[in-house]
Automatic annotation (TrEMBL):
Record carries keyword Oxidoreductase: yes
Keyword tags: NADP, Oxidoreductase
CDD domains found in the cross-reference section: Aldo_ket_red_shaker-like
Protein name: Aldo/keto reductase family protein
Protein's UniProt keywords contain NADP: yes
Domain of life: Bacteria
InterPro entries: K_chnl_volt-dep_bsu_KCNAB-rel, NAD(P)_OxRdtase_dom_sf, NADP_OxRdtase_dom
Record organism: Streptomonospora halophila
Domain NADP-dependent oxidoreductase as annotated: residue spans: 15-313
Length: 332
């Protein structure tokens, strides 16, 4: 495994992180989830990402049990707050009340007394940013959270948060967690430059586009049995990228991966890690073999000519519009 600093912070994380959205507490049984976590630890992964809202809290519980007995200070455990965790008006968003309550619940479910990184899972237009940043800062002072970050915030939102934190003398955000892959590059024009200026690193999600970049989904064919596309919840999310014109373009990567001596998943994970503003790629997995496959992308360098041929192969299937970084206009 290779390790990188989280932005300009002192925290070091594994450049491949393991995340449990869709899988733990939902798509896969606990035994399979535990096997994936064990595989991640065996690969030298120390960074684990989850969220309060994944599988209504069950994802954090499963991860907490799977990591039980590991040396806590040898791990970096990341969670998030924003999406609904209950039926109430205050069971969501980035109000002081919800941040404080949800952090306590995450700590209990994960069986730990601190989070290494606590992330605002989207921007909340219904809460003053001052209130959110102060609540996060309080958690840092209380030792419940070591660092704070955000997820899918726009460049101007990141910049406002940094300016405000400096004015108020509060802890600065150190990371952003955006979607980023060969197919989805919307952070490149604005979010990445703003993050570089502000000292944030990206912890990127869906680096293999939820499985699409493995090439296992073929144009005009049914999705393979047991894949995310066939899972009730997962299927809703992956359907946005399961388009025949995209799948046809992805098949053009097969000879490029072969030539580079990489699997398709390794090529995709290695691709996001070529961006030096990326601190880690968070991989998901429904089986332990996938963890082994994808984690082997750590430390892989892709040369310029291969990067250019990837661009040529994918052509207009690549999303680049920075306007695609969005948070819900109203609280969900
Ligand atoms: N901040 C946010 O808003 C946000 C949003 C999404 C995700 N995330 C984070 O990012 C993590 C990763 O997201 P993701 O799961 O979408 O990432 P991903 O790595 O792009 O996709 C993972 C899925 O692809 C399939 N797969 C993985 N490796 C494979 C291989 N070698 N061969 C064939 N299929 C393979 C598996 O699904 P099947 O086997 O079921 O097909 C696996 O669950 C999440 O767990 C979460 O921590 C954050």
């Amino acid at each position: 495994m290779e390790f990188r600093h989280l932005g300009n912070s002192g925290l070091v994380i594994s450049e491949i992180a393991y995340g449990n959205w869709i899988t733990h507490g939902s798509q896969i049984e606990e035994e399979g989830a535990t096997a994936c976590v064990r595989a991640a630890l065996d690969e030298g992964i120390t960074t684990f990402d989850t969220a309060d809202a994944y599988a209504q809290g069950r994802a954090e519980e499963v991860l907490g049990r799977a990591l039980k007995g590991e040396r806590r200070d040898g791990l970096e455990i990341l969670s998030k707050v924003f999406w609904p965790t209950g039926p109430g008006k205050n069971d969501r968003g980035l109000s002081r009340k919800h941040i404080v309550r949800s952090c306590e619940d995450s700590l209990r479910r994960l069986g730990t007394d601190y989070l290494d990184l606590y992330q605002a899972h989207r921007f909340d237009y219904a809460t003053p940013l001052e209130e959110t940043l102060r609540a996060f800062d309080d958690l840092v002072r209380q030792g419940k959270v070591c660092y704070i970050g955000v997820s899918e915030w726009r460049a101007e939102e990141i910049e406002r948060a940094l300016t405000l934190a400096d004015e108020m003398g509060l802890d600065r955000i150190v990371s952003n967690q955006p979607q980023y892959s060969m197919l989805h590059r919307v952070i490149e024009p604005e979010v990445v430059p703003a993050s570089r200026r502000g000292g944030l690193g990206q912890i990127v999600f869906s680096p293999i586009a939820q499985g699409v970049l493995t090439g296992k989904y073929k144009p005009g064919q049914e999705a393979p049995a047991g894949s995310r596309a066939t899972d009730e919840t997962g299927g809703r999310f992956i359907s946005r990228v399961l388009k025949d014109d995209v799948l046809e373009r992805v098949q053009r990567l097969v000879p490029l991966a072969e030539e580079a001596g990489l699997t398709m998943a390794q090529l995709a994970v290695a691709w996001v890690l070529q961006n030096d503003n990326v601190s880690a790629a968070i991989i998901g997995a429904s089986r332990p073999e996938q963890v082994g496959d994808n984690a082997a992308a750590a430390g892989v360098r892709l040369d310029e000519s291969l990067m250019a041929r990837i661009d040529e192969a994918l052509g207009d299937a690549v999303q680049r519009d920075p306007a695609l970084t969005v948070s819900p206009p109203q609280r969900p």
